[in-house]
Amino acid sequence: MWAISKKEWTHYFGSLTGFLVICFYLLANSLFLFVLPNFNVLDFGYASLQVYFDYAPWFLLLLVPAITMRSFSEELRQGSFELLMSLPISPLQMVLGKLMGVIMILAIALAPTLLYGIALDQLSSTGGLDWGATAGAYWGLFLLASVYAAVGIFASAITKQALVALLVSISICIFLYKGFDWIAALPFFQNGSGFYVQQLGLQAHFENMGKGVLYASDLVYLLSLILLFVLGAVEKIQYRKTSFLVYLMLVVINIAMHFAPLQWDLTKDERYTLSNTSKQIIAGVQEPVKIHLYLGGNLPTQYKKLANAATAILNKIVQENTQAIEWQLDLPNQMYKDTVLYEAYDSLSKLGLPIERVQSDASKADQRIDQLIIPGLLIIMPGKQPIAVDLRSSKKYFKPYNIIKDVPEEDLDASANAAEALLEFKITQALYFLNRKTIPTIGYLIGNGEPIDLSVNDLGQSIRHQYHLAVFDLKKGFPTAPAIKTLLIVKPTQPFTELDKFKIDQYLMSGGNIIWAVDRLHAEYDSLQKTAGAYIAYDRNLGLDDLLFKYGVRMNSNLVQDLNCSKLPVVVGKDPTGNPVIQRIPWPYYPFLNGNNGHVIVKNIDRVLSQFPSSIDTIKARGIQKTILLSTDTNSRLVATPNLISLNSGKAPNELNSFTQHQIPIAVLLEGKFSSLYHNRVNPTWQDSLLQYTGKPFQSSSSSVSKQIVIADADILTNSVDKTNGPMPMGVLPFEAYQFGNRDFFTNAIVYLNEPVDILEARNKQLVLRLLNREKVSAQKTAWQFILTLGPIIALSFGQLFWLFYRKRQFAV
Asked: Residue 191 pLDDT more than 60?
């Protein structure tokens, strides 16, 4: 067998034709990947060979049949086949020998393309090339090429004409790679069975490996195809049918492996591995679920990358639960036209899907793309309200800028990467909400001046589809933990009595959770507008200090300023016609808050907008774990009160030098078994009332672990109200069309406090953005194009020369 294998590749490289065929293959690859404008990896800006692995199967469709077309057909045509049959080897060994020879030729053809990866790794600015994913993709490509080789040898065994063998081989390979996808797209298979039809084809199995994920089922499938066509060639050679049991065994093994969850995610950041919690949520879905993805087609680069990532995650989810979950791609601009198209967009928008207008350069010919895209998906379960998922970035990254002078410019690549990292979390959370059997109740506390107007509209809108939201008047009863999972205490303006605090304390002791969003000081921008541009902030005297101190935090009587802040429109003068000139100026009393990236509530969320926040100190409390969730940036300061709040704050000479503090805490998470403030001093009358309303006696400590989130700025959870358009989204300022991460912070906090499973676990996934150094690529692009175009051919030429020299020395007389 080894002698036949050696004969194959010796014969191939013994002529100039074989060398030129591989040179043409390498040249076509290089031109396609690094020179042609529409597919140029250097222009895409990512240190990834994904484009190569996406198109390599089509190039191999021409290379491999060209190598294998003479394997047996030449022997049959020249009459040397009888000589082969006379050798003391079996037909199976003969076919395997020829297959091994072709595989060695293919290995030599693929080896020079490793230069592509080395070059991209050298040109990378961050992360470098993911060599684990690249190795997995090469392994998949090698197995795919081996399948093509087995098909080519089979085709060569059934005809004496090499050209016929070439055409038959190409036809079979095309059908195996893409044919089943075409069949699955037929209307007959749109009932969910199309997924199983696709699994019969090569593409579905290679795509996983091309991304760096090795599934046992994919490996077994590819090896089974190789064995299938090897046995077919053997049958043709020896004119005898293989046992039916062998084929049946191959089918049974592949079906069994489809249910085997074995996989090896070789990517460095494990981007294609679902968390254990996500797998439990997906496996728990019993009712049929249909997921409609609307992001696809001809898209700008960052959206194309997001669409590919969404497709990969959806395929992974379907594989985890093929019985109940299916997905499909819907592109309204291809399904509808004119008026019907805009009606479709309007309907999808009303369901909560984001619709975005994108204008971007399409080519160097100054053509532009102007299109409406839907970067979202819709999850539908019978009998439930559909859930729309926004696939866009939950955290926007910005290029380095001067926080005083510059307008921040978004780093689109980094933001798109953040969006990819959250895809698993967003989709599995929506599946969890649809499949959840028990819906917790959130109690919005009133009785101490908490707002019940449109300023808390978005607070209710953001959770009303996932939770029961109820209003509870603290003056009229005792909140109970079994009935109310979490209490929301938002922007109280009137002092709490001792009885009020006792009720809250006992609610917490019985296992309840609380979100405190409190403004200790009265400091409002509206008050500033009604005065001459300055007024004094004062303490509301809410009476909560001792209660919060007992639980482990102290809310300070001060205001926090930071230079990394929002800008407010201010009249700075008049133009020559007498009209006011309005300019947006930094307003340090509206600082941007950063999340603690080590906690799932705030991981990968955008900056949170605050308005007149105070600082928080953590206090020693036995058994209580404290985690800072939100804090200021690196240029902060504390303003003691009473103090004058002025529009000119931060503008005095040398005043900027006082912003020397950093990461001042604004929001803190408390977890553990809390001790009651009223231990050993409970009022008997209150105790009787507690027993009467709740049926439970006084508790001096928590019966179970409770959680509290204390926020020293209530405006984080409220929203502005526009006089014309009504309530605005949380985290949006008038005159500024940008939504900060306030809503994400709030909804994540609600999920963390109320759900029995850790559905936020998937937020921990961090994907490295592997970018090319744009300056380096721009300066050295031509040089690298020459290297990547000619380098593989030169490497192959040296190998060919070495081989000819070796052969000459071996057979010289």
From this structure: no
More confident residue, 771 or 7: 771
Nearest to 510, CA basis, from 538, 537, 482: 482
Distance CA 481, CA 478 (A): 10
Q: What is the C-alpha to C-alpha distance for residues 417 and 396, in angstroms, rounded to an integer?
A: 10
Q: Which of helix, strand or coil describes residue 201? A: coil
Residue 360 binned pLDDT confidence (cut-offs 50, 70, 90): low
Widest pairwise Cα distance in the chain: 116
Cβ atoms within 10 A of the Cβ of 385, count? 13
Q: What is the mean pLDDT of residues 756-767?
A: 73
Do residues 537 and 521 touch, judged by C-beta distance below 8 A? yes
Choose among 767, 807, 412: nearest CA to 603: 767
Full set of structural domains in the chain with CATH: 2-267+776-811 (no CATH), 276-417 (3.40.30), 441-760 (no CATH)
DSSP annotation of 469: E
* Mutual angle of helices 131-157 and 216-238, in 10-degree steps: 20
**Integer Cα distance of 808 and 804 in angstroms:** 6
Q: How far apart are CA 631 and CA 222, in angstroms?
A: 53
**Which residues pair with residue 582 across a beta bridge?**
571
More confident residue, 715 or 371: 715
Neighbours of 292 (CB within 10 A): 18
374-431 per-position pLDDT tens digit: 999 999 999 888 999 998 876 666 665 555 555 666 666 667 777 888 888 889 999 9
Q: Which helix (H) or strand (E) holds 225?
A: helix 216-238
Helix boundaries (H) for 284-403: 301-320, 332-335, 338-350
Q: How far is CA 380 from CA 7, 283, 284, in A?
A: 59, 17, 16
**Phi and psi, residue 721, nearest 5°:** -125, 115
Cross-strand partners of 488 = 444, 515
Distance CA 422, CA 445 (A): 32
pLDDT, residue 486, reads 96
Q: Which of 60, 55, 52 is nearest to 25 (CA)?
A: 60
3-state secondary structure of 167: helix
Report cis status (omega within 30 of 0) of the bond before 642: yes
**Cβ within 8 Å of residue 619, ≥6 positions away:** 549, 552, 553, 554
Q: 411: which 2 tokens?
A: 């780093």
- Which conformational region is residue 359 in: left (phi greater than 0), alpha (psi within -120 to 50 degrees), or beta? beta
* Percent of the residues in the chain that have a pLDDT greater than 90, as a whole number: 31
- Mean pLDDT on 213-223: 86
Place of tokens 């004058």: 644
Q: Is the pLDDT of residue 366 over 50?
A: no
770 Cβ contact partners less than 8 Å away, ≥ 6 residues apart: 46, 47, 48, 124, 126, 127, 128, 129, 130
The CA distance from 419 to 399, in Å, is 17
Of 460, 492, 455, 459, the residue nearest 475 (C-alpha) = 492
Q: Which of 158, 14, 3, 15 is nearest to 75 (CA)?
A: 158
Cα–Cα distance between 533 and 537 in angstroms, integer? Answer: 13
Q: How many CB atoms lie within 10 A of CB 477?
A: 13
Q: How far apart are the C-alpha atoms of 211 and 199, rounded to whole Å?
A: 17
The predicted pLDDT at position 472 comes to 96
The C-alpha atoms of residue 315 and residue 257 are separated, in whole angstroms, by 17
**What pLDDT band is residue 460 in, cutting at 50, 70 and 90?**
very high
C-alpha–C-alpha distance, residues 770 and 413, integer Å? 10
Give the global pTM: 0.72
Q: Please, which pLDDT band fits residue 363 given cuts at 50, 70 and 90?
A: very low
Q: Are 495 and 689 in contact (CB under 8 A)?
A: no
SS3 of 240, please? coil
